[in-house]
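Schema walk-through. Below, the input block comes first and the output block second. Nothing else is stored per chain. Lengths vary across the set, and this one has 156 residues.
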Amino acid sequence: MNNDTQLSIINGLLEGILENHPDIFLIQVRIKPTNNIKVFIDTNEGISIDKCIRVNRQLYKAIEEAAMFPEGDFSLEVSSPGVGEPILLNRQYQKNIGRHFIVTLNDEKKLEGTLTTSTDDGIVLEEITGKGKKQETLTHSILFEQIKKAVVEVKF
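--- output ---
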């Protein structure tokens, strides 16, 4: 069974599992060559360890029942995306309005600023440049198709 087929089956299993958890949304599934399956999920309020454990147990059982991996030769990790993981879904942008972002565009240009808006088509970042009387706010409207990578920047 190839990787695309495995991903398709796992996504289907997750769809069924997440129907019972409408607050949880799937961000991404990755399968490493070592049959290590990584599932990234979240909620609008942030996901708890308990919810990750519940989804992990249900998915693990479903994968075993589907006999996708001979002799149970797989491992499964279910978690929220960590700090530094790229934002992939509009729902993630919505959740992070008001936070500072670093956005790399397709032409490799980088923009930094506070996410103020997320629509079906793109996002709006506000960048503050200069200091004192020379301070100005630049507004960047960016279409999703222009974004190569977007990451929330954690500031302390």
